[in-house]
Specification:
The protein is α/β, with parallel strands linked by helices. The chain has helices at 16-26, 28-31, 50-56, 69-79, 96-108, 126-142, 154-159, 171-186, 203-207, 210-222, 235-238; strands spanning 2-9, 36-43, 60-63, 84-88, 92-93, 111-119, 149-153, 189-200. The protein has a single domain (2-202), classed as Spore Coat Polysaccharide Biosynthesis Protein SpsA, Chain A (Alpha-Beta Complex), CATH 3.90.550. It has an eight-stranded mixed beta sheet, with helices on both faces. Strand 2, helix 3 and strand 3 (60-63) form a beta-alpha-beta unit.
């Protein structure tokens, strides 16, 4: 078995070292099974030392010139050689316990892919913790993976068309839905792991006001998600704030 951990990164030199160190420690769960694994970072046209930081940590670096999250993930996937792809965001830190549960799922043969619930750092604002709890509940009920952690069989990823370039945010939801349909057609499952949530950053809550979040929510809701197809409506992901 070979597993490829793919990390899309845009101007992430500050947080990327911690993420890479966490991934290497967590990947011990793969090593104990005798599996090979690799680390691929997709530099999404960064203007800082993101690519250099990744190379210094021993990662293979792919480059995507168009600044779009779905494109970055797909470019990283094309550079990967694993039978399974594990997408982790550059501001998130998996644990060995999470990757151990993931390895069990991969070895079972019962899944085409899935995601993981999330947790925020100690001291995160109360509203952020509330949003995370609500998301975790909906994620498990609806079978939607958070973009911070998605794992998928390479062949299923290709069959589902990857993340695609149609939207600038929420691409993980569309992929989750396509993979869910594929799983049902194959008599398999798309599952959200929940015993060991992924630690992910709360920076969007700290960087933007509550009114900004409400405005984004209304924009997406009132357009039935069509706003995700317009880069200018997805400034949370593309305005460069870190």
């Amino acid at each position: 078995m070979r597993v490829s951990v793919v990390i899309p990164a845009y101007n992430e030199e500050a947080l990327l070292p911690e993420t890479l160190a966490a991934v290497r420690a967590a990947a011990g769960a793969f090593g104990r099974r005798g599996w090979d694994w690799e680390l691929v970072v997709c530099d999404n046209n960064s203007s800082d030392r993101t690519a250099a930081v990744a190379r210094e940590a021993g990662a293979r670096v792919a480059f995507e010139p168009v600044n779009q999250i779905g494109r970055a993930r797909d470019t990283g996937a094309r550079a990967a050689m694993g039978e399974w792809l594990v997408f982790v965001d550059a501001d998130s830190q998996p644990t060995e316990a999470l990757f151990s549960d993931l390895a069990d799922a991969l070895a079972s043969g019962r899944f085409v892919g899935g995601g993981a619930t999330v947790r925020l750092p100690v001291g995160s604002p109360a509203v952020a913790r509330l949003i995370a709890r609500a998301w975790n509940l909906w994620s498990r009920l609806a079978g939607w993976a958070a973009g911070s952690c998605i794992w998928v069989e390479s062949s299923a990823f290709r069959a589902a068309g990857g993340f695609g370039a149609e939207v600038y945010a929420g691409e993980e939801v569309w992929l989750s839905r396509r993979l869910g349909r594929l799983a049902r057609a194959q008599g398999r499952r798309f599952a959200i792991l929940h015993r060991h949530p992924l630690l992910t950053s709360d920076r969007k809550v700290r960087l933007y006001r509550l009114s900004d979040h409400l405005r984004l929510f209304l924009r997406m809701t009132l357009t039935f998600g069509r706003a995700a197809r317009r880069r200018e409506d997805c400034d949370f992901w593309y305005d460069g704030r870190r």
